[in-house]
Amino acid sequence: MSAYEPKSNEKVIIFGPTGAVGRAAAFAASNAGAKVYLAMRDPSKAIPGLNQNDEQTAGLTRLRADLTDPTSLKQAIAESGATRAYVYTIFNSIDSMRSSFDALKEAGVKFVVLLSSHSVKGYARDAVNHEEMNFIPHVHASAEIALEESGIEDFVAVRPAFFNSNIMWWKEGIKKGEVQLLWGGKGGNEGEKEREGEKVVMLDWIAPEDIGTVCGRLLAYPELRQSHKGKVMYLNGPKLLSLRQGLEIVAKIVNHPIHITSISAEDFINSSILPRPVAEAVVQGWKENSGPSVEGQEERGMYPKSEYGEAVGNLRRYLGKEPMQFEEWAQKNNYLFD
What we know:
This protein is an alpha/beta fold.
């Protein structure tokens, strides 16, 4: 802990601690000295990657609460006394989570860190976030709007891009050594040298643990929040890689070859483990933000150079250390590929 980070005395509540981001947020806030409460529908449920000894050492306290149940939210805040909350976006909320945010405000929450998405561009109300087929940005942007309209004193919508854990979309193929990719690129050590006119999707590969650590530190240290202008924070991983390059890294870690073939957008949608609306939105996002590589053209794709540099800078600054490279993340989480 550096000199400008005194021990926190905040009371923090984390919703979704069974997820990698929520779990990391809980530990980051606890390590900073905050009193951390874990809000769970079922407090007896095991939390992946968290054993009882670690939980007790960190002083984490479980509470029963359902982010879709405003009454339970009020009870959890009353019991914990938390004034700062980490919240994730609920995709099937009928009111874009407005009733949940209203309940948190009424119960005494002053600051919220909302896990949103890089797919939301500019201001949440901008029309581009609510176009037909843009399911993912629409859901996240609508939650951001609901949070703002709730009148909660302060919030930050954290907008990360491509989670490292999304590699699990191809888990079964990885195990079989046969993966079909949409716009995966040529890959290899020399980078993207695809055939002329062939699309390739470059992705930032950000560790969920790093996202959660940023969220937890924002909750624990009000001065970090004050150092960030605005209510939106983009986060990007430290290195752009194609899907093929990501799978080449995984192949080395699992120690068996992965044969990669190309498929069409429709085949990706039909074969994906993702719900069809999500798969369609993924394809739409990749389609709009990909293209053949052009030497010297640095402003192409979903990561324009200036915006990408700022988003990686945010990750480094609020993480307090160098971000995790995809290879390091995959090695630490190699059990996921079993």
